[in-house]
Structure formats: C-alpha cells, structure tokens
Amino acid sequence: MDQRSLLLRRRRRSNSQELGDNTDGLMDILSNVVGVMALIGSLTGIFATTSALNIQAPMQQKSSRNFVLLQAAKEGVWDLQPAVDRMVTLDRQRASEVNRCAQLLPPEQQACDRELDGWKRQEQVGPIGMTVSHANGLITRNGPPTVLAVDLKKTEGWLDQTMQRLAKEKKAVFVVLENDGFEAYRAIKNKALQYKVPIGWEPWYKQDPIYFWGNSGRNLTIQ
To answer: Is 169 strand, coil or helix?
Structure first.
C-alpha cells in the first residue's frame, strides 16, 4: 500500500464519525499546485451557507499556479503562508509515521497504530496559531498583523516587495477577506494588478479559524 493510500486510510478512520468521508490528504491538498484548498468557517457561517448540519462546507481553489495565502481585515494584512508551509512539513512527518507503522507485522503494527491515534501538533508561527492532526489542519490569526493597514500604501513597502517576489516566482495571491477588510483588499489588488499577479478572494467571518482538508465544494477563481 502506497503512502497516499495510508494517509487517506488513517484520516478516514480518525475522522469518519465527525466529518464524514475525507477524500484527500492534507499534504496533497497543500503541496499540489493543481489540487484543492479547503477552507472551513464556523458552524454559524456554515449553517447560513448550507442550512445543513454539516461541518464540512469547504471552498475549492484550482489554479495552474501555486499561491500565497493572505488574510485581510481593518487592522491590516496577515501573511498566512509561513504557518501553512509549517503545517505541510508536519503533515509530511505524520504521513511518514503512518507509513512506517504500515510496514510492521502484527502485533507491532497494532502497537504502532495505537501510539499514532492521538497524533497532534500545535505551534505558533509568528502571529498565526497552527494545529495539525489526522483529522485536519487549521490556522488562526491570533497576533498583530504582518503589516498594518497604514503601511500598505507605502512605496516600496511590504506589499510592493511581496508582489514583486510573487511575480518573479510566477505565483498567485489568495485573500481571505474579513467583512471590514475591503480597504486592505483594495490595496492588495492594486499592487497585484500593477505587478500582474493573479488574485482571488473569499469573504470570511472575523476570527474564524481556517480549516484544511479535502472535499468538494464551491469553486474559487483566480482572476
């Protein structure tokens, strides 16, 4: 059995009762540039969107380019990408342990599986809290913005430097947009257009965590 199958098998087993079928691994979602990015809101937001008792209401983003994830609010902009990258690294480690257990013979395999059943990692990556487990990964902004709103329009400031880098690396930018963050989003969009960086966005409830796992849902577009 290959590593992908093992990863999916453990995710389904660990999370089947709470989340239903889980059809993609976190590592595959976040490291495949033509894959799916699933972002989940709070139960309140999901009920309003789906009118159903289903905590999986993911969005999808498919693009021929890799992308950088930002979050915009009235206070400024948070660079979520370092936390996402760290989550991918930890998930690869988790998948490696799952694969190691699968290579063992009973009863060693059963003992190894029991040790992994509660696998979970939590870290603070700058102003972003990050958690990853067999079930999913999530990030939450819980610190000050990476760049304050007042600094977004500075010439050759953080936003210019970021867009220049993304243009050079041929990456897109995707903005998780809180309801009071339109000024910040306009600043991001103007610089993205200036440097010809594709941009996409999705409205978001303030302070809601962003969950990552695979499933079907609405299509997001990169403009």
So the answer is: helix
